[in-house]
Amino acid sequence: MNSHLGRRVLQVLPTLLLVSMLVFGLQQLMPGDPALVLAGEERDPLVLQQIRTELWLDRPIPIQYLHWIGGVVHGDLGYSWRIRQPVLQLVAEKLPVTLQLGVMAFLIAIGIGIPAGILSAVKRNTKWDYIANGIGLAGLSTPNFWLGIMLILLVSVRLGWLPPSGYVSLWEDWRMSLATTIMPAFVLGNAIAAVLMRHTRSAMLTAMDQDYVRTARAKGLNETVVVLKHALRNALVPVITLGALELGTLLSGAVLTEQVFSIPGFGKLIVDAVFNRDYPVVQGVVLITATIYILLNLLADVMYVVINPRLRGA
Amino acid sequence: MSATTIGATPAIPKPQSPAKLAVWRFCRRPAALLGLFVVTVFILVAVFAPWIAPADPIKTSWTAIRKAPSLLYWMGTDENGRDVASRVIFGARASMMAGVISVAIAAGIGVPAGLLAGFVGGKVDMLLGRIVDAMLAVPNLILAIALAAFLGPSLQNAMIAIGVTAAPVFMRVARGATMDAATNEYVEAARALGNPGWRVAIRHILPNIVPPVLVQATLAIAGAIIAEAALSFLGLGQQPPAPSWGSMLNSAQRFLTQAPWLAIFPGAAIFLCVLSFNLVGDGLRDALDPRGK
Q: What mean pLDDT is predicted for residues A33-42?
């Protein structure tokens, strides 16, 4: 087991290195001179040269990369061109907001997706199975920004139950914080719930065909115990790990959801940076998102080995 | 129709050729057929938009601002007095184009790379695998936003961004299918006959990796349509006044209380189009799966 984990950790390093090259390479796609973008209306050649020297833009690309990655390794992702704050500080301010939204969305996704998957598998080829599958497919096909707008229209505008937008910190007023984040979290969790439902259904169908389930039934155990204690426990192993891979969907979805609900999180940071042409922030957010995603995948791999007794001794 | 068809099909003998068998399996799935019908309707709407649309999609009218749906304006009018139905019809063009072109870009990059990695193996496979891992490590919409941001906002750049971010999945699918196909006896026979590697790969392996790539392409079109709508919603795709479902939703947000129809129709169009492509993709996957019944 340790050698497997060691190998996985070692595999992460070249991936991270390539991600850093990819993120750095984004800047090279920019049409024109970045110094001109940064200078704005200023066209004084001396000022432009000063900007190029400060940002190492007058050096060869490999040297620029080494300078940039050297800073990244030491926690320096550069400065925002617009707000004049370190990118890391900006990200650190916004990340807890997205984290709260993400955790709530994931809990909602688990709360809907796993029971729906179990129901669909247990009631295979019945109307319940078709309804659950239909809702799952609809969930996968609904753009979350449209679902958000429709929910604002129904829940906030028509019914007046929840605030349509904004964000209150959990530490400031937890009730108001939940009121402002429950609807975006549902929107964000919706697509993941559909994926979890499909994974759970498939894993449950496999588990229900296994000999240990037949043995449990032959022992005269109650069907609920057979499903929840024997089949589900084994079916959940792949579901947990596959579910962890959906965190990428969650991070992508957060960009749009935060935009719809005006939540000042990680996603809104990247969109605002894009429109302000604040490229160091765009690069920083992409790099941090990718690093989080890679580490979560690694964690999912570790969890898979830890919770799967057959792999523990390997 | 479905009950009669399903009831009648077992009497029809199964066709023997793999292609005919796949068509036969696909036709036995009412949901997939319904999806195909709706997709065809969307394609026809996109192609014949100038003849179908009741009005010019960018023509403003100050006397018809935010009119509710009626016989004159089926889906109402927007904040500039433009006919929403015409904009939704023309918006299908942007979405379909984005879906097809992005997936063509993704397949154009991913399939040759996957074929190369799966066929050559060794260090080439390892290097390409690492690049794919790195690209897949960045959530695709975030990578597409970053690419579109650096390339500049336009529908063309959005399609490039979506295509490039979708390429790694095609590479993985093609690689897996190539490795699978390469173990077949006819491939060994082609090699034994002295055919050069590139000829074996292109003439003998490539045709056999088409089915999984086709399934991936159908599902990827659905993803690309959502991604284009998302980028346009954020202002990074189709630029105003050209119609796009995503950008229509963006401007609809400001008039949610006064004109909810501005948000309902373009969103419903995205949902229906994506759902139909997903139904076709699911149907194709089941039909092309050799283990399918």
A: 73
| Contact yes or no for B238/B230 (Cβ under 8 A) | no
Closest among B163, B165, B156, B162 to B94, alpha carbons compared: B156
Asked if B82 and B261 count as a contact pair (C-beta separation under 8 A), the reply is no
CA distance A40 to B204: 56
Helix (H, G, I), strand (E, B) or coil at A144: helix
Question: How do residues A205-233 score in pLDDT, each as one tens digit?
Answer: 888 888 888 998 898 888 888 888 888 88
A153/B256 Cβ within 8 A: yes
Contact B145 A255 (CB under 8 A): yes
B158 and A CB contact within 8 Å = no
* CB-CB under 8 Å, A256 with B230: yes
**The pLDDT value given to residue B3:** 45
Secondary structure (3-state) at A86: strand
- Tens of pLDDT, residue by residue over B219-266, are 899 999 999 999 999 999 999 889 999 999 999 999 988 999 999 999
Handedness of CA A64, A70, A73, A75 (dihedral sign): negative
Looking at the complex, report in whole angstroms how far the Cα of residue A86 sits from the nearest Cα belonging to chain B. 19
Please name the member of B133, B233, B278 whose beta carbon is closest to the beta carbon of A256: B233
> Which among A15, A29, A31 has the least Cβ separation from residue B134?
A15
What distance in Å separates the CA atoms of residue A251 and residue A244, rounded to the nearest whole number?
12
Among A22, A140, A289, the residue with its CB nearest the CB of B134 is: A22
Quote the pTM value: 0.88
Find the residue in A nearest to B259 (Cα).
A153
